[in-house]
Amino acid sequence: MALNPSAAGRRDPDRAGAAGRHPDGGEPQKNSAATSAPANQNGVQAGCGDVVMPEQEAPERRRNAPTDARSFSGSPSTGPRPSEELPRRNFQIPRKARERKGLYNFLRPDSREFEDLVKILSSFYLDSSSRSTFSYSKARMVYNELLEKEFIEKRREMKQEGRTEQELTESYCFLFPDKAKLHWICEKGLAVGHSKITTLGNPSMGVYLSKYSDLLQINPFEVGSSGDMVLFKVMRGRIKHNHENMPKNAMEPTPKFDCNLSKSANRVTSLLSYRAFELTQQYFYEFAFDEIKARPRHVCPYAVVSFKYIGKEAAATPMTAHRFNTISPEGSKGKNCYTGVERPTTEQGSGVIPNLFTIVFAALPSFQTA
């Protein structure tokens, strides 16, 4: 049976419209444009092709929407920055400000740093019995960024000059300054002219520091004396050993040297030795070409420790009982109240010359009988 061509042409547009309106929203057929052309020729509405195209593009846009969203969120240039980064960046600025330390950092007496300082002090005693005669109540570390940088720079320069490891070794020295000058020394450093000693060199061209932590002044400490001692970190560098000078003939520093020591320092074996304080001093200086620097860089304040001199048990007796170097009641020998050295006494026959108090009290009965 032959088919009517006109009837077949009318059924094709219906099938094409049905394919464009697929309920599953699948991909439209590739020949959609070819099917729409005959429909226009057979009297189908002219806007049919325009109506089908948006419906064909809608499923494709829905399929590509998740891909575009993923690409948009994963782009580092267009994506928003995490919200926690801004608070973290703002929090680092005050943290750095809080980490900045002042000139002093006070240490607790039960801290490990405090114990380390006490160990340093005890290792620099001339007399081992000083462990029981000195007590330390508080300590503070000195943080001076400028002086520390200059100390490191000086060490680097000395190393470039070919100095030995022994010359670059760091050690400690001590100073018992006036209380009014303590803060200035820790803030500005130890400048020349602070001392009046002339044993090793001109005090206006160098600085003097004590070698021993229990020998801080010329005269021995009295019982109950207290104060603040400054610990210095030093490098002796190239040492020159010389004899002590007379006060009128103060020597000038020697070029290419960094420190002067006395040749008689090894003879000092006691705190009560003759000129013990002066002979154990260390003289530091620094040359800048042909001139002397106002502050040697290889001397840097390290810590400040408060101390009190307790004294030995024998020294705890009242000083008035020894003011006249009295003779002990048991025998013929007495002790000097300042040196503790036994002094020989002069004998008359079998007796001992009495002291002033004995003469006064012995004369009282004679006045009463008269």
TrEMBL record:
Pfam families: DUF3715 (PF12509). Residues 157-301 form the TASOR pseudo-PARP domain. InterPro entries: TASOR, TASOR_DUF3715. One of its GO terms (cellular component) is heterochromatin. Residues 29-44, 70-80 have a biased composition (Polar residues). Residues 1-94 are annotated as: Disordered. GO terms for molecular function: chromatin binding. Residues 9-27 have a biased composition (Basic and acidic residues). This is TASOR pseudo-PARP domain-containing protein. One of its GO terms (biological process) is negative regulation of gene expression, epigenetic.
